[in-house]
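Summary of Year 1 activities. Much of the first year was spent building the evaluation harness for sequence design. The harness presents a backbone, in tokenized form, and records the residue chosen at every position. We chose the following record to illustrate the format because it has been used consistently in internal testing since the harness was completed.
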């Protein structure tokens, strides 16, 4: 029996648990490595297919743009029908999953992800696996494969106590950013059981973040640490350091979380008169250049979602394209309300409420958006 809409939140952990369950079902081969493809790794839309006309039109549009669609509580089999009609991949919920969530993944998503991973691996260059280190060598003097447990952490982690780091064995070396170390890791009971390796988080250079995580993991591997942890603020698969991380002599296992930008948007939703996440939302990066997307595509895609009444959450807005976001609002032909969320879940948290026309929204943007900035755009007025 399908759960009621009240029991499965669109912006909760459900979509990301379901994505982690099926990430191994799709993969691409890049540079002789097999990379799993999580359906939420490059932005997606989530719909609750109760309003057939609105939601199905939105789903078909998203698939045309190359965005996967998560169908939450699909009692009518619309996800499977949509996949067949669009020649997309259908990824049903795992048999033992408590989450009634299925994914439809278009072919364009696969090719785009493969190109993105190839670009990042090519930039890193060919790096031979480390040789001759302690900790157990494999064939030919090479180290055994390194197992990396990537754990999504965030505000919910603080309520879990010592269980928050349950996927990690005591004494593991754990790689994390300075943000995670300051705002999350040191507040978890029992964190002193682990050896932290803290890296600076660079809000404007995500490729550099991937590079330094890769280097830290390689150094640990060379030091004989075949089982290590990687703490990711949010969801490890979604717009983060797993995006192009080399997998030669390395296995990555994911414990999902909720992306911080989406969690911030869910918290900011209380400022709207009507719940902006009641029916659907789109989650995508406003920094289209990072993902090799032409500005025209970002503009067209965002405009189509806003015109359909889909709530949009734009992340990576520290350097994201505000001007094109405002142009999409103008082109969609509807008045929108927006909330800019800056450095949420830290002592520097700020909220900016933006109203009305694109001109009015533009005047409300601060000159300094903060480091961790996301933009929520939705129908309806603010309280």
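For this record, the design step produced the sequence shown next.
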């Amino acid at each position: 029996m399908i759960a009621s809409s009240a029991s499965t939140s669109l912006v909760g952990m459900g979509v990301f648990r379901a994505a982690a369950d099926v990430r191994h079902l799709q993969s691409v081969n890049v540079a002789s490595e097999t990379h799993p493809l999580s359906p939420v790794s490059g932005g997606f839309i989530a719909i609750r297919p109760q309003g057939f006309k609105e939601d199905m039109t939105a789903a078909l549009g998203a698939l045309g743009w190359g965005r996967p669609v998560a169908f939450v509580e699909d009692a009518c089999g619309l996800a499977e029908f949509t996949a067949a009609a669009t020649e997309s991949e259908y990824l049903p919920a795992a048999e033992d999953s408590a989450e009634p969530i299925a994914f439809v993944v278009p072919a364009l998503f696969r090719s785009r992800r493969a190109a993105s991973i190839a670009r990042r691996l090519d930039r890193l260059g060919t790096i031979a696996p480390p040789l001759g280190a302690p900790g157990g060598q494999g064939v030919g003097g090479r180290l055994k494969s390194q197992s990396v447990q990537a754990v999504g952490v965030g505000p919910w982690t603080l309520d879990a106590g010592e269980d928050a780091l349950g996927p990690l064995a005591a004494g593991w070396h754990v790689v994390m950013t300075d943000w995670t170390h300051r705002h999350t890791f040191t507040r978890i009971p029992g964190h002193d059981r682990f050896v932290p390796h803290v890296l600076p988080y660079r809000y404007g250079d995500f490729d550099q973040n991937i590079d330094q995580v890769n280097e830290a993991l390689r150094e640990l591997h060379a030091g004989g640490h075949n089982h290590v942890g990687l703490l990711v603020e949010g969801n490890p698969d979604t717009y983060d350091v797993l995006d192009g991380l080399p997998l030669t002599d390395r296995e990555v296992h994911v414990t999902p979380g909720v992306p911080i930008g989406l969690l911030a948007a869910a918290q900011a939703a209380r400022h709207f008169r009507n719940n902006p996440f009641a029916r659907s939302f789109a989650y995508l990066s406003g920094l289209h250049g990072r993902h090799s997307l032409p500005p025209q595509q970002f503009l067209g895609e965002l405009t189509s979602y806003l015109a359909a009444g889909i709530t949009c959450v734009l992340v990576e807005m520290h350097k994201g394209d505000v001007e094109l976001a405002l142009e999409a609002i103008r082109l969609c032909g509807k008045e929108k309300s927006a909330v800019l969320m800056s450095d949420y879940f830290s002592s520097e948290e700020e909220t900016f409420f933006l109203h009305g026309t694109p001109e009015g929204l533009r005047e409300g943007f601060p000159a300094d958006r903060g480091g961790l900035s996301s933009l929520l755009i939705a129908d309806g007025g603010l309280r």
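Residues 1-7, 131-136 have pLDDT under 50 and may be disordered. Quantitative recovery figures across the full test set are reported in Table 2.
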